[in-house]
């Protein structure tokens, strides 16, 4: 209907404007890809964002339907990848040049790009781009709350029984054998008892092979093995194939096997992960995401996820699955009971969507109804059991869930039964859908439209597996069983492929297999790599089984070797990977220095060998290699690509090879032809619409004018060129003038090429959008290079469309000429360890633009990491320099020879510190001093500078309990100034973990005076100060102080000006506040100072920040404030600036830029260094860097465990602490981590109670405010990490604290413990601390743990007891009272004070004597008693206090219950 409306409107406009309007239309602005408004909104709010770029060209998959078996999927994969490689090349080049982060997806011909508005505009203007969409997340079709812990039951689950699957098992001996199912979900517990036996990766001997059987694109699972982070995926897989044994039947097809892709990170699924998972389903890969195997694709893929309506973003993926013969099952969604709620992608016509019903055969209440938001068709397609479905659950147990997520796998399992029972039906998706539809039990439910037989509530009806299998064209079936053995050793062979037509199986660990085949004569083939294959013909009986055993001869292996070199003129060796079709294992890699390679294959066979250079700009070389029974040498010369983009070459276009076709006549030019597939006119040469030449050419032209032919006209017409001989053309191109006016998917212009006289055509250009002239198109003709019989056709198809005009058609050649150049390559290693180093900069100082960084090569097992290469335009002897902090830079002269690879290896030196012992135990009397020594030695190859760092509390804090991990997606998460909603109930931000039971490490303190975020906090004199707050919240000028002694906040004088997300640092007892946004979104350049002693604010006169920022990283080191990165404007464009402010001189200086543009960067000063981690620009970072203020240089350190930004952060106990924040996929978390500079490692700390981001934190450790989707005032504290100083252990001294050791040198440091009250040891007991070492080396240094046992003096005694309080009801409980002990006769000059704990217990050592003991607590009557403390004796004094006020009787005022107010 839309196609009818569109031309009618346009035609009407033409009538009104007259024909003179046509040139105006022709001169319209160039095509601009459609940009989704959400992308623009995110860019406006954030400055940069991540978005998906979809390209216009789509692979032509129609022809693959004629292929059978694995050839079908292989061709689909080849078409998709080649289309993506060809059409994405230009955009990838631009993104690489601009150093933009991107991910390419071949299954949808799309790229995910991180960038700003300028980059977006550049991309949108490119002619190959179709549209730009936001990066979205789609929920797992969320079931109702799981009833977890359900025990295994010796019965068939009601849903499995409802669809009559057991009848299929019993009557047809069919349980889905030989069929592979997959799910894209939240993962699977692969070793669940009900699933482990069905996992394709189970080797049968207790080991597992996860390559090609499991995929986790975001590496959520910590090891390369299947895991499930939510339970959903384990549940859906159980419904497909689960078998708990002992009659515990939870799965529809318990004989099928399974594989899985974790496309859903947790309860959500990002479109990036779903696209990657969709690719993997079509062509599973190894653990490195390489070596795709379309032949290992599953038969069926279950998708219990989705969201929204009418969004075609996943259509290409579903189309690709269908083209490869993969049956796509989708949940309809849980958005009912309203009509028109069917979820995407289940609402696609190509998707088989499933609704849910319950055990009473009634529709599941929340099952989504149709119609489809895509085409208005009936949805769901069918319904299946979806309420109270019991299935497998992580942990080895079972759970009962409800939702269409549970319904879909019933259908997936049924398809497995169908395809196992009826092998001829396998991968025939249309016939399978028809069978499911026809055998469903009709349900008359037309309230959302449709008929009694097919409606938008139940679809075709209730699924019935038994009726479907019974009606399937299966004929009679029987079984073929057998064993495959090695003819030489007679040992069983596992992993052998057994096939008969499209039905196949794989032998297990014992070499056994079973096939279900139609009755009668069948050919069965057994084959394995190297063993070849053997076939036998068997007669399959209607009952029982026939045995077909195979013995396969072990292979005779031969070696193929040679060199891979540049084949276009330079001839230098190439680092490349080589794949051999059918050969198991990963690719073969050439030696990156010599280009040599070697591999073994079975003799007497022919192999397809594909060589891909690791350097950009080279073609993929594919050749057939015939191997006899002797070693063979195959040297491979790889030419540069069609576009001549390889380094060391220059290109130029030739003139027309065969002249220019100008179409100046009114008829078809000589040698050309026109082919029309409809009765309507096609290509003409007389301008029937009188449009004039709008192509950019002159004179006459060729045109297909669809709109001038009227409403009912349909065109499918070819303009075919003569044959051309291009045997001497290196890189032919088609060049022509064009005016393509296309605005819809069925209004299409294509350019195809043939080299076999028109028997087959290859598409090389596709236009289905606005490509208005005048324009000149340049189309590479890669399939035509070097071919003798080349023809080109212009094919136009339209259904009442517009037009396509072409003129000045030429074939030209692109030459590619070598320029003077050489390759330089080698490895950079650590001289101390010999290990390769990644990220080292290697530069040619004589040509500074010629530089690179070393990189990891994890997929190449033959070389270490630390490989580098670059193109050198210099020859002769030149210096090369390799550098990476904290290693010593190294330079060497290298002789560079043109047209060869010149090797230069570097071994970088660094110091390496060892410690003679890591545990010290001392015992000493109170008041004494003891010392010992620890030996430090530099075992490295360069000097090492050491700084000692002592700290207390590590043992206790790390061992304490944190809240359960909480992670929640916040779709509204933003880094912009107005980022979090304000004015809501603060309690709404508390996570479920906030109420976790138990004594948690983080304790709640009094909430801030107001809900606040983007504040900053410092600690001075034990009190916590919060300054500033989020824009528009009324807290921008706020100043509050928190006193831990009273647990109260107090308001202080307002700041001189409002600041949101400022930097605040305490220096010499004053608070210095820098940056932050003002009300208009500009960072504030002035510096304000608060003096707690005078309770006043002031502004430093004449002091202005040269690069003011908001949400910047902030640290204090050597008395100077360092501000790193931050937001340059209200949209928060990240920056790299580093400014240093000296409060004593009141001056700013600048430092070396941060390595990344960043904002909301947690930073802190520890010892003499600054450490920064995480932050965000377009995506959350995991990067960690250290800054040496004296050297003005940054050093890369170990990455964060997860990407985090906006984390409340501080320094305490010598650690940089990040308390939660915003992680990947806009997920707020309460996970708390800390970086330890001494061990150069991240460690987990107890999780906070409330998950927030953009809150404040101060040493102590105090966390104030923040938010998730709402703002909070809640605050909490993690105690035990000491005060703000890095050296928080006054009783521990390490001398010397700073030293430098030459290589091989050693030094004894003295460790001294002073056990006196002046050093913080006020009582006998056990004291623990540790000291570590920060060094300028790349290696961790273990900390030294110190434990001191302090004994009481001989003339001391101990007093202990319990203080209780008696309540009005007579009950007695502990009271945290103060116990003061005054020595009698001292006139009050000698006294001691101890505070009882919450249970009233106290204990105290003190000198012997007679003491007056006073026990007091507000609200209780004090008690006084004299108590004698004897030498070496423990005295006990228990006290019961009475309430000060007399106990009242009778009723209490309304609203007040015994002093506790309740909300009315």
Automatic annotation (TrEMBL):
Keyword Protease in annotation: yes
Active site location: 185, 232, 405
Name of one Pfam family that matches: Kelch_KLHDC2_KLHL20_DRC7
Source organism, top-level taxon: Bacteria
Annotated Peptidase S8/S53 domain residues: 176-460
Signal peptide annotation: 1-28
Gene3D superfamilies, alphabetized: Carboxypeptidase-like, regulatory domain (2.60.40.1120), Galactose-binding domain-like (2.60.120.260), Kelch-type beta propeller (2.120.10.80), Peptidase S8/S53 domain (3.40.50.200)
InterPro entries: Bacillopeptidase_F, Carb-bd-like_fold, CarboxyPept-like_regulatory, ConA-like_dom_sf, Kelch-typ_b-propeller, Kelch_1, Peptidase_S8/S53_dom, Peptidase_S8/S53_dom_sf
Keyword Protease listed: yes
Alphabetically ordered keywords of this record: Hydrolase, Protease, Serine protease, Signal
PANTHER family documented for this protein: EGF-LIKE DOMAIN-CONTAINING PROTEIN, PEPTIDASE S8
Similarity field: Belongs to the peptidase S8 family.
Name recorded for this polypeptide: Peptidase S8
Organism for this UniProt entry: Micromonospora musae
């Amino acid at each position: 209907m839309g196609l009818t409306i569109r031309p009618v409107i346009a035609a009407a406009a033409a009538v009104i404007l007259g024909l003179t309007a046509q040139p105006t239309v022709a001169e319209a602005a160039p095509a601009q890809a459609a940009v989704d408004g959400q992308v623009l909104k995110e860019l406006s709010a954030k400055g940069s964002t991540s978005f998906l770029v979809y390209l216009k060209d789509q692979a032509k998959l129609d022809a693959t339907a004629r292929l059978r078996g694995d050839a079908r999927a292989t061709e689909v994969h080849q078409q998709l990848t080649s289309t993506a490689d060809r059409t994405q090349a230009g955009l990838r080049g631009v993104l690489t040049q601009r150093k933009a982060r991107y991910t390419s997806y071949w299954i949808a011909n799309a790229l995910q790009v991180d960038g700003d508005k300028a980059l977006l505009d550049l991309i949108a203007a490119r002619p190959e781009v179709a549209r730009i969409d936001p990066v979205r997340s789609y929920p797992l079709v969320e079931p109702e709350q799981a009833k977890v812990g359900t025990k295994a039951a010796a019965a068939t689950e009601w849903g499995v029984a409802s669809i009559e699957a057991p009848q299929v098992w019993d009557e047809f001996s069919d349980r889905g054998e030989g069929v592979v199912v997959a799910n894209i979900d939240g993962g699977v517990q692969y070793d669940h008892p009900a699933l482990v036996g069905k996992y394709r990766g189970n080797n049968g001997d207790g080991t597992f092979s996860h390559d090609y059987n499991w995929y986790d694109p975001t590496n959520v699972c910590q090891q390369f093995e299947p895991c499930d982070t939510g339970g959903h995926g384990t549940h859906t897989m159980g419904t497909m194939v689960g078998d708990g044994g002992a009659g515990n039947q939870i799965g529809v097809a318990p004989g099928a096997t399974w594989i899985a892709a974790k496309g859903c990170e947790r309860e959500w699924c990002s479109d990036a992960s779903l696209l990657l998972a969709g690719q993997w389903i079509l062509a599973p890969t190894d653990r490195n995401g390489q070596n795709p195997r379309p032949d290992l694709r599953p038969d069926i893929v279950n998708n219990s996820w989705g969201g929204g309506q009418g969004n075609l973003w996943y259509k290409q993926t579903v189309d690709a699955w269908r083209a490869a013969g993969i049956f796509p099952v989708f949940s309809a969604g849980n958005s009912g009971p309203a009509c028109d709620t069917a979820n995407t992608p289940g609402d696609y016509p190509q998707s088989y969507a499933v609704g849910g019903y319950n055990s009473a055969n009634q529709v599941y209440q929340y099952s989504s109804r149709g119609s489809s938001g895509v085409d208005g068709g009936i949805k769901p397609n069918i319904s299946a059991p979806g309420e109270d479905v019991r299935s497998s659950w992580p942990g080895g147990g079972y759970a009962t869930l409800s939702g269409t997520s549970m319904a879909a796998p019933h259908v997936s399992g049924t398809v497995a039964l169908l395809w196992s029972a009826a092998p001829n039906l396998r991968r025939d998706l249309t016939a399978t859908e028809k069978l499911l539809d026809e055998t469903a039990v009709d349900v008359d439910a037309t309230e959302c439209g449709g008929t009694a037989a097919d409606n938008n509530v139940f679809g075709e009806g209730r699924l019935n597996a038994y009726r479907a299998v019974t009606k399937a064209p299966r004929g009679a079936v029987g079984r073929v069983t057998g064993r495959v053995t090695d003819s030489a050793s007679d040992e069983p062979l596992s992993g052998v492929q057994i096939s008969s037509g499209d039905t196949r199986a794989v032998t297990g660990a014992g070499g056994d297999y079973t096939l279900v085949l139609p009755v009668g004569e069948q050919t069965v083939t057994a084959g394995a790599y190297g063993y070849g294959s053997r076939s036998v013909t068997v007669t399959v009986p209607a009952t029982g089984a026939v045995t077909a055993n195979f013995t396969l001869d072990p292979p005779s292996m031969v070696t193929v070797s040679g060199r891979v070199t540049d084949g276009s003129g330079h001839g230098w060796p190439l680092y490349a990977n080589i794949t051999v079709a059918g050969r198991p294992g990963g690719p073969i890699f050439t030696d990156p220095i010599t280009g040599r390679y070697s591999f073994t294959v079975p003799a007497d066979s022919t192999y397809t060998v594909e060589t891909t250079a690791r350097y950009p700009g080279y073609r993929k070389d594919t050749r057939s290699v015939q191997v006899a029974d002797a070693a063979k040498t195959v040297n491979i010369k790889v030419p540069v690509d069609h576009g001549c983009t390889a380094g060391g070459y220059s290109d130029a276009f030739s003139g027309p090879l065969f002249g220019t076709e100008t179409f100046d006549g009114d008829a078809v030019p000589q040698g050309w032809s026109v082919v029309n597939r409809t009765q309507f006119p096609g290509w003409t040469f007389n301008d029937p619409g009188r449009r004039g030449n709008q192509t950019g050419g002159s004179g006459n032209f060729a045109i297909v004018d669809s709109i001038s032919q009227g409403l009912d006209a349909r065109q499918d017409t070819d303009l075919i060129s003569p044959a051309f001989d291009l045997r001497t053309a290196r890189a032919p191109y088609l060049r022509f003038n064009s005016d393509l006016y296309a605005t819809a998917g069925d209004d299409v212009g294509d350019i195809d090429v043939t080299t076999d006289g028109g028997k087959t055509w290859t598409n090389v250009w596709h236009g289905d959008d606005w490509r208005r002239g005048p324009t000149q198109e340049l189309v590479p003709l890669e399939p035509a290079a070097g071919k003798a019989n080349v023809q080109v056709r212009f094919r136009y198809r339209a259904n009442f469309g517009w037009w396509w005009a072409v003129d000045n058609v030429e074939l030209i050649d692109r030459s590619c000429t070598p320029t003077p150049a050489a390759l330089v390559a080698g490895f950079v290693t650590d001289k101390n360890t010999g290990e390769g180093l990644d990220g080292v900069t290697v530069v040619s100082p004589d040509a500074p633009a010629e530089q690179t960084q070393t990189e990891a090569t994890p997929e190449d097992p033959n070389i270490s990491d630390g490989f580098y290469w670059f193109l050198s335009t210099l020859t002769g002897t030149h210096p090369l320099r390799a550098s990476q902090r904290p290693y010593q830079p190294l330079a060497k002269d290298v002789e560079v020879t043109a047209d060869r690879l010149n090797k230069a290896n570097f071994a970088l030196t660094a110091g390496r510190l060892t410690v003679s012992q890591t545990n010290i135990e001392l015992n000493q009397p109170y008041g004494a001093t003891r010392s010992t020594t620890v030996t430090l030695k530099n075992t490295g190859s360069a000097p090492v500078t050491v700084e000692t760092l002592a700290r207390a509390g590590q043992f206790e804090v790390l061992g304490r309990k944190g809240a359960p991990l909480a992670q929640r997606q916040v779709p509204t998460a933003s880094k912009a100034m107005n980022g979090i909603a304000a004015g809501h109930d603060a309690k709404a931000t508390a996570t479920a973990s906030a109420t976790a039971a138990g004594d948690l490490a983080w304790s709640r303190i009094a909430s801030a005076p107001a809900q606040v975020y983007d504040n900053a906090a410092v600690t001075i004199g034990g009190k916590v100060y919060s300054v500033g707050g989020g824009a528009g919240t009324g807290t921008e000028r706020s100043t509050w102080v928190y006193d831990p002694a009273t647990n109260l906040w107090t308001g202080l004088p307002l700041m001189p000006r409002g600041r949101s997300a400022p930097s605040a640092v305490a220096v010499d007892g004053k608070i210095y506040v820098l940056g932050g946004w003002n009300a208009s979104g500009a960072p504030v350049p002035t510096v304000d100072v608060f003096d707690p002693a005078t309770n006043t604010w002031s502004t430093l006169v004449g002091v202005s920040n040269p690069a003011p920022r908001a949400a910047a990283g902030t640290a204090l080191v050597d008395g100077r404030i360092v501000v790193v990165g931050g937001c340059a404007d209200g949209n928060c464009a990240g920056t790299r600036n580093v400014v240093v402010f000296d409060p004593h001189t009141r001056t700013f200086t600048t430092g070396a830029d941060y390595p990344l543009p960043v904002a909301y960067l947690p930073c802190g000063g520890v010892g003499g260094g600054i450490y920064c981690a995480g932050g965000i620009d377009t995506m959350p970072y995991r990067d960690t860097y250290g800054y040496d203020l004296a050297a003005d240089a940054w050093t890369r350190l170990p990455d964060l465990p997860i990407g985090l930004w906006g984390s409340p952060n501080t320094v305490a106990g010598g650690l940089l602490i990040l308390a939660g924040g915003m992680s990947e996929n806009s997920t707020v978390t309460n996970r708390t981590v800390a970086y330890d500079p001494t061990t150069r490692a991240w460690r987990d700390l107890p999780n906070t109670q409330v998950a927030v981001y953009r809150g404040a934190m101060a040493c102590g450790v105090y966390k104030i405010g923040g938010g998730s989707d709402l703002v909070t005032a809640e605050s909490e504290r993690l105690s035990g990490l000491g005060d703000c100083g890095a050296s928080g252990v006054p009783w521990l001294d390490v001398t010397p604290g700073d030293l430098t050791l030459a290589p091989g040198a050693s030094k004894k440091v003295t460790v001294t413990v002073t056990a006196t009250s002046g050093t913080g040891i006020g009582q006998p007991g056990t004291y623990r601390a540790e000291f570590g070492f920060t060094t300028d080396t790349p290696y961790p240094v273990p900390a030294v743990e110190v434990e001191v046992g302090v004994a009481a003096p001989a003339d001391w005694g101990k007093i202990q007891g319990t203080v209780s309080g008696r309540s009005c009801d007579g009950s007695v409980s502990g009271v945290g009272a103060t116990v003061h002990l005054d020595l009698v006769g001292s006139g009050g000059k000698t006294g001691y004070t101890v505070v009882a704990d919450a249970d009233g217990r106290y204990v105290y050592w003190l000198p012997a004597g007679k003491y007056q003991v006073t026990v007091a607590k507000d609200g209780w009557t004090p008690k006084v008693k004299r108590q004698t403390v004897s030498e070496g004796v423990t005295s006990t004094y228990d006290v019961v206090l009475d309430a000060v006020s007399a106990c009242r009787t009778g009723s209490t005022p309304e609203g007040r219950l015994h002093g506790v107010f309740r909300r009315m």
